[in-house]
Amino acid sequence: MTLRRTSAAISPTAHYTGYVWARHGVGPAGLATRTGAVLYNALRPAMAASAGAGGPTLEGLLLGRHRAMDQLLSEAIDSGRVGQVVEIAAGLSPRGHQYAAAYGERLTYVEADLPGMARLKREALERVGGPGSTTHHVVDFDALATEGPQSLDAVMAGLDPTVGTAVITEGLLNYLPTEAVTGLWSRLATQLSRFPAGLYLSDLHLAGENSSTVLSAFSTLLGAFVRGRIHFHFADAAAAEGALLEAGFREARLHRPDAERFDLPPHLRAGARLVRVVDARI
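Structure for Class I SAM-dependent methyltransferase, as requested:
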């Protein structure tokens, strides 16, 4: 079976999330696109209706997971454990630009995505003043490639093996079948074991936390939005953590983005409860 995450299937979420981040002041406004604004306004009535009924919104989901992942990544960098970051399926995320600007030459930051999206990201970065440092790069990449110049092995081979390294996959896993996810996790664990410290951060939706009628309808809407099926790979956090350990990670924990430590505003918490943040370490 051929498994490919095509640009056509996933690019709507890249535009939408880029607009949401810019709208909420997360990163430069220049990373938002006109397509993102159109998509945001198209979904706005449905999101307003959900919020009015006390239900989840895509903004809560997106901002909740992003804030939690940023906090965990910053803690790892500030502690000295991590000095290199690879963000897979980076899309129009502002994280690379922000972290490169904040840490400068102390941090190597590689954004990786399919060629079409990588090209769009390079153009967007040029609009906002280019990369935040000379160690900030955008590369062509296929998360499902097991060999070749766009594979994980090729990207990781370009990093310094003496420096702790983090890999991020935000907004990717739930568009992939389970076997593709566990295969990616195994390759990540193998690659991160080459470094003095390895950290993997991701978002993940659990079947047991998305099973109500309302949440099923919400997931159906999201699937239609991205033109593909949304996959729930694991029933609960324990099952996901077990799969991460089986893949080769030595520690694995799933955080709730609405937890007190991440200080998420109350109006975003219903959306944030739909997702967990993976924190796996070598």
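The CA atoms of residues 19 and 237 lie 30 Å apart.
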